[in-house]
């Protein structure tokens, strides 16, 4: 055979052109296309060009790209509107908006992950070179750039909305004082306090992150139930509590650091206390899924130079090795996530 079959060409194009979808989403969100079409359903190309302050030709290209991605639909008269997906998740003011994560994906993840091959050859996160500043991890560099730090925290808050299964876990109902290690901007802490009225949370994170979290907690009127403690999760002692939460934390780090965090949690908890680890995970045979692969590339090429969406079975071995007894696994395979609940044995 001296040519590519239509089926193989379609499959190859799907692999080679994945960047088209994320690029179109990023541009549409940045220019405000989905917000505009929400206000003006049935808009023409000319309307979009004027509303977004771009050329008519540019509007045609953008609308073509978004139509191809399934985020915009065109009727027979040439009028455009958001699809249900875009209306629900890509408007900047939608309750479940992922627009901030789209921006983070475009401006940080995609930029840095272009250096994956270089990162693998050098054994370091070479993609971090695209973001000047002090420190060997993206998180250290974000701390020195308030605008980028806000983008990251807002994006992670949106991403955290993928965790309904985590906050519904029945084991959380027994917790009274939860230590949220690496708790970010307080999104999880606030959701958990609203879900469990008797719960108080101590959020532990770096000073620049705690400043963001305190403001959000105060705006939510939850400052009596959520306090923020500035600390390095590896170097500094953790506050006391009967439960520890590590949400979107352990997958960032190499195995030895994950094992250290699990051992520190077990040492800090009282007998019967529980560790809740909500983490990205790949299939146990490491054959998928796509979100697990994307995140693993990002950790290695940009964020830390280490870590990956480890299999849940590997986490279970580490938790046992750290001294935990009973383990429960709540799978969210459709999200490439797992909630692991580990209980410290009694005396």
Explain this structure to me?
Its EC number is 2.1.1.-. This is Methyltransferase. GO terms for molecular function: O-methyltransferase activity; protein dimerization activity. By secondary structure, the protein is an alpha/beta fold. It has three domains: 84 residues, Winged helix-like DNA-binding domain superfamily/Winged helix DNA-binding domain (Arc Repressor Mutant, subunit A, Orthogonal Bundle); 56 residues, no CATH class; 189 residues, Rossmann fold. It is built from 16 helices and nine strands. The strands form two sheets. The protein has a seven-stranded mixed β-sheet with strand order 5-4-3-6-7-9-8, sandwiched between helices. It has a two-stranded antiparallel ribbon with strand order 1-2. Strand 1 and strand 2 form a beta hairpin. The protein is globular and about 75 Å long. The N and C termini lie far apart (70 Å).
The span between the termini is 70 Å
Overall structural class, as computed from helix and strand content, comes to alpha/beta
CATH classification class of the largest domain: Alpha Beta
Strand content: 5-15%
Order of helices and strands: HHHHHEEHHHHHHEHEHEEHEHHEE
Shape: globular
Count up the helices.
Answer: 16
**Rg over alpha carbons:** 22 Å
Average predicted confidence as pLDDT? 94
- Residues in helix, %: 40-55%
Give me the CATH fold name of the largest domain. Rossmann fold
Quickly count the domains.
Answer: 3
- Quick one: CATH superfamily of the largest domain? Vaccinia Virus protein VP39
Biggest pleated sheet: 7 strands, mixed
Q: What topology, given as strand order, has the largest sheet?
A: 5-4-3-6-7-9-8
Task: Give the beta-strand count.
Answer: 9
Contiguous low-pLDDT stretches (5 residues minimum) are none
CATH architecture of the largest domain: 3-Layer(aba) Sandwich
């Amino acid at each position: 055979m001296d040519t590519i079959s239509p089926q193989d060409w379609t499959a190859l194009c799907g692999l080679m052109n994945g960047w088209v979808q994320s690029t179109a989403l990023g541009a549409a969100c940045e220019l405000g296309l989905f917000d505009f079409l929400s206000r003006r359903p049935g808009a023409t190309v000319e309307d979009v060009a004027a509303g977004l302050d771009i050329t008519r030709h540019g509007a045609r290209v953008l609308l073509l790209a978004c139509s191809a991605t399934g985020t915009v639909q065109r009727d027979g008269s040439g009028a455009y509107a958001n699809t249900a997906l875009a209306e629900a998740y890509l408007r900047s003011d939608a309750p479940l908006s992922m627009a901030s994560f789209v921006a983070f994906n475009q401006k940080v993840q995609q930029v840095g992950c272009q250096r994956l091959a270089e990162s693998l050859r050098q054994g370091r996160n070479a993609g971090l070179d695209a973001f000047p500043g002090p420190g060997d991890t993206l998180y250290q560099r974000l701390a020195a750039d308030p605008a980028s730090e806000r983008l990251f925290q807002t994006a992670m808050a949106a991403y955290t909305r993928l965790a309904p299964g985590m906050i519904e876990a029945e084991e959380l109902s027994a917790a009274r004082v939860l230590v949220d290690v690496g708790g970010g901007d307080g999104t999880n802490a606030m959701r958990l306090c609203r879900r469990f009225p008797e719960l108080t949370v101590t959020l532990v994170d770096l000073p620049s992150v705690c400043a963001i979290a305190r403001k959000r907690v105060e705006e939510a009127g939850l400052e009596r139930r959520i306090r923020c403690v500035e600390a390095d999760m590896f170097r500094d002692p953790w506050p006391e509590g009967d439960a520890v939460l590590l949400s979107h934390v352990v997958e960032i780090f190499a195995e030895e650091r994950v094992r250290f965090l699990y051992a520190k949690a077990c040492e800090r908890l009282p007998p019967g206390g529980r560790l809740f680890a909500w983490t990205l995970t790949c299939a146990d045979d490491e054959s998928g899924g796509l979100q697990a692969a994307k995140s693993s590339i990002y950790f290695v090429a940009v964020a830390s130079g280490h870590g990956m969406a480890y299999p849940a079975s590997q986490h279970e071995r580490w938790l046992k090795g750290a001294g935990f007894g009973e383990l429960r696994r709540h799978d969210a395979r459709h999200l490439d996530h797992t909630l692991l609940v580990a209980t410290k044995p009694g005396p």
